[in-house]
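Kindly inspect this today.
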Amino acid sequence: MKPQNQRFESNYPLDADQISEWVEQFNRDGFLFLEDVLKEEHIAQLKADLDWSLSHFTSRDKDPNGKLNPQSSKSSHRLCHRMFEHSPANLNLFDLEPIVSFAEALVEANCHVIHNNSFITPPGGGLTT
């Protein structure tokens, strides 16, 4: 099924005090982990869009912009670059509140996202450096 054009909201309300606490925590700890930000429907659409991408960008002819990691790669991870270009659910992540307000408070207003990749790892695989 081709990616759907659907708008999603997060599970978090926009709260300026909360944004300030997140920025302070990020600056103190170097990371911020938020649980349950995305709703189940959004997660399902993100997964469906990645599955669609991985099944449709299967050759250089079908993937002229090089969205997938090379099949000859030694990695067992399946990676699709720039998902926002063909997945409205991924594009929606860029202006999802309160995440966008957190990013703008942390970096600056109207900051620019340059990566939006999605990937699958094998069971028990995970990511390592």
The chain has a mean pLDDT of 78. DSSP finds four helices and two strands in the chain. Residues 40-56 form the longest helix (17 residues).
